[in-house]
Every structure is written in structure tokens, then in C-alpha cells.
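Bumping with the actual sequence this time:
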Amino acid sequence: MSRDVHNGPTDEFTQARGTEYSHDADAGEAPELLQLPLDQWHRARGGRMVPFAGYEMPVQYEGIMAEHVWTREHAGLFDVSHMGQLLFSGPDADAQLETLLPGDIKGLGEGRMRYSLLLAENGGIHDDLMVTRLPAENAFEAEGRDFYMVVNGATKWDDIGVFREFLPDEVGMSHLDEQALLALQGPEAVTALERVVPGVSALVFMTAAAFEWQGNPLWVSRSGYTGEDGFEISIPGDAAEAFAEALCAQPEVKPIGLGARDSLRLEAGLPLYGHDLDLETTPVAADLGFALSKRRREEGGFAGHARIIAEREQGPVAKRVGLIVDGRQPVREGAAVVDDEGTTVGKVTSGGFAPTLQKPIAMAYVPAALAQPGTRVTLAQRGKIHHAEVVAMPFVPHRYVRKGS
């Protein structure tokens, strides 16, 4: 089921947005947390639930380190149903989306996906997202040149607000609020999922198609945010528990929590919105230049184009880089990058211990002069000094299955 959210917010829209973002509530009043379709399933399997993006979500089951290693070696099942699933329709939907996204949406083939950015007028980033052109036959019964988009859970209501404000009425937008979204990630994900949903192995990285499981429509993409091969599966919420059980009945699969999801994406060098990306960050500073397609750079017409192109040509003042930290002590988000006099010149935006490398790693924004791999930098956190080296990302090679591989 979907809900049209283009022509004005429903009460549910207003309430949900207020739950996550309202500043009018009493200071001591905690917002009510929403529950995932698999909430009781997580609890029954020993998931330790924590608040995240307005929801109660499992941070771990057996332990973050064990779950991280299992996903790298086998297949981990992640519940990412907090993320926003949106549909866009209309004869010029691709052209209209290009006014807000810097990617080549018009050139996107049916069943093809693209990583893109929802940009603000100043060139900052509202959100990073995945957009797919739907074929005529799809799991959402959406005909024609329509698009499926997955946006971050913590920003989905604000994203919907941006789309409602800037897209014309001719572009229809629906929020698939009753769909669950599961991610199966790891080198054995394809083996396990093929048993349950025959035919998915024909997909390659950044492609998607409709499938069926026990009479339930599935929309399956070969994608994910761990750096591993894997899939994301959109399924009706009322069928999600039985489907998760079917997946976890496979010997390769275990449920994995938010903790390992974060350490996996950090090793893969993938930014997390609200930490490594925000409204003050441009795609060039974030080292996401690949999301700016050649045609769009030349033609312009997207939010923040002038600033972004000028920054691309002249170079950013600061740039997102990877760091390997000396010693064994992780450096966390918020640590300062300091110069020889102890003056803050940059900041760490994500950090932790990398189980695959057995070393602490981090992402940080540093002055452009310090962004070259091999550069030594100094970090300060809680009165302690740490030393690190700028390195190329990803920290751990991606293992996506591409066409012909």
C-alpha cells in the first residue's frame, strides 16, 4: 500500500514528522519511538533495541564484532525498514527530479539504479539516496516511466517536504509506508537468497527487478551499504516476518544489528548522512564527484549547480578523507584535526575499530592541503593526542558483482 503525499500532508504525515523533528515539545518529554514491522521478531531473537532515527532498532544480537565478521564471511540480514521508500510518477518525472538531483536520471534504463544526492539551493546535501527507474512490470503496480527511491530514515520526512515544495503538481509522489525493507549482505547472500527467491542471481550490481515469494510481491535490487555483494528486498510489512524466518533458516544467514552495519559501511568508506554529510557539505567536499554526471555538470539545471561547479574547478577548502589511526585506540566522531600549534583545522565525522583490518580507522574533513594519501595528521579528543595517516578509501575493497564479473 502507498500513500499519496504530494498534495498536502495527511494527519499521519504531520504526526510522524512532528514525532521525529518537533522542537515544540517540552524539553523533558521524549518523543514516542516508532516500531519496525519486525519489532517482536528482533526481540525474540535476542536483539538489543535502541532508539535510532525515531524507531526502536536492534543494535546487536550476538555482538558487533561477531556480526561484522559473519557478514564479511557469510551473509547478514539487516532490517532497514526505517528508511523511506518513495514512488514518483508522471511523464516528465525524470526531468523534474533532475532539478534536485545531480545525476543522469533521464538516461537511467529500466531496472537500473543510481546513487544520487538531494541537493539544497546552496549546494549542500539534504540527503543521499538510491533511485531506480521502474519497468512496466514491477512489485508496486506502478506503470510507465516511474521511479522508486530509497531515502534515509532520519531525513525521510524532511525529504518528502523538499520534494513536495519543489516538484510540480504533475509529478505524483507516494510514500510506501507499509512496505518493509530488508538487506541481505555478504559473499554468501546470493546463495541463500537464490534458494528462497529463485532467479535473483541473474541480477548484477545496481540492477533491480520484481519477484514473488509465497504470493507476496518483492522488489529486489542487487545493492547495499556494506561494500559486500548483497541485496535489498522491499516486501509488504505483513509478510516481512515470515520472509525473515525463511532467510534465517538458511545456514549462511544470521540477523545483524546496527552496530555491525555501521562498522561495515565505515570499512567500505561509505558516508553516513547526519555524520559525514549534511547541509553544510557539498558533493565536492564529500568526495562524491562520481554522483555528478558529465551531462549534468555541463548542462546544469540542478540545485546548487553554480557553487558546486566552481568548487569542482577551483578545489574545495576541505575534503572528506580516510584515516588509519596509530595504535589500537579508536578515535570517534567529533575529534578535532589540529595543526602543529593545536588549532582545530578539521574534524572526524566517523570513527571506530575496523575488525577486518584490526586497526582503528576514521573519516574526517581536513584542509585540501592535507588530503593527499600519505599525509600525517594529528587528532585531539578528550585531552588526548592521536596520530593518523590519510589513506585512500575504501579501507576494505568492495566486492560488488558487476556485469561480466
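The C-alpha cells above came from a reply further down the thread. The CA atoms of residues 49 and 336 lie 31 Å apart.
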